[in-house]
Amino acid sequence: MTYTSELPTAVQIVDFEPQHAKAFYDLNHEWITRYFVMEEADHRSLGDPKGYILDKGGYILMANYKGEVVGTCALINDGDGIYELAKMAVSPKAQGLKIGKLLGEAAIQKARDAGAEKVYLVSNRRLETALHLYKRLGFIEVPMPPSIYERADIKMEINLF
User: Measuring CA to CA, which residue among 26, 1, 17, 14 is closest to residue 93?
Assistant: First the structure.
């Protein structure tokens, strides 16, 4: 499925294909290592997106701009109608074009289409721009349980029903 932006930037949000694996890895590796360090869960999900995300009923979306992949995000299926919004990344050269917003909206719609009741995410309070985006998308902060990520210090969720 392809989601096309109405913005003049002509951003296209497309479903992950095997040829996107390197871009999925590179986009996420870039932001993670800019702010934090790669953790074991990062290596697992980025090293095997098909096995870790897609084969378990999840989805990965890619953002194309002017013929280049510049953004991505994933929906990891936790079961029981719950998905985790994860691995959202936009290339620094494409930031400011509202690509993160488009990816987030497309991911929420994809979760709705899959029958999800809830989408949650974990993040870090240092990522103020990302947190602002999540709030604009309708996510609210909820209590933070233990996480597979040491860097995670905030959990947010959105109910879709």
Answer: 26
